[in-house]
Amino acid sequence: MDQPKALEPGTTSRAKLSNTLSEQGFALGNPAFIRLFKTEKRLELWLARNGQRFACFRHYPIRAFSGHLGPKLAEGDLQAPEGFYRVGIKQLNPRSRHHLAFNLGFPNVYDQALERTGSALMVHGGCTSRGCYAMTDVLIEEIYVIVEAALLAGQEAVDVQALPFVLTDGALTHASTSPWFAFWTNLKQGFDLFEQTRTPPVVGACNGYYRFGSGLDAAGGDEIGYWR
């Protein structure tokens, strides 16, 4: 996968970006989907062509995230969140002190049910983190422009999967002694659904677990929301 070309902060060219997208069969305004992997320090940006399944546009290196593997539990623990989040238009911050940012929407209904607390958990520019995912000013510009265009074109919200690592069977087995093994096993259900369908699953929470698609309906859980 080609890495993004360097862009000077404040000079992202929509025309050049549109051309780059077009070369891969995408366009500004296509629906977007994001995966974040802590161990691999990677953000993946996926786009859907004309209502088709999502395909990966680019990988971006995560410059920094704070904390360690595992979910965010409480305000001030400096943990970057793990879980399933949705980003609506009101979560975009073009005037962030970190150049550009979008709020992940932590705590979601799953986090709230477990009484997890925290605020202002972002994907943003810059090179430092206090519970966020820092992408550098250069890279956040391209990511932000694509996410903003998708939302302005009518996508209700951009789904974000924030994960400890690529959740293959082998990687999860290797982590079987972690206190977060059960939590990560639950996350793997959503990871696998996207791997199988290349469509972000409907995600909600019920009884302390993430539920997906028809499983969410059967459990009567609450769907993960976004700012309205």
Automatic annotation (TrEMBL):
Keywords: Cell shape, Cell wall biogenesis/degradation, Peptidoglycan synthesis, Transferase. The active site is at H124 (proton donor/acceptor), C132 (nucleophile). The keyword Transferase applies. CDD domains: YkuD_like (cd16913). InterPro entries: LD_TPept_cat_dom, Transpep_catalytic_dom. SUPFAM superfamilies: L,D-transpeptidase catalytic domain-like (SSF141523). It comes from the Bacteria. Pathway: Cell wall biogenesis; peptidoglycan biosynthesis. Belongs to the YkuD family. This is 2-dehydro-3-deoxyphosphooctonate aldolase. It comes from Devosia rhodophyticola. The lineage of its organism: Bacteria, Pseudomonadati, Pseudomonadota, Alphaproteobacteria, Hyphomicrobiales.
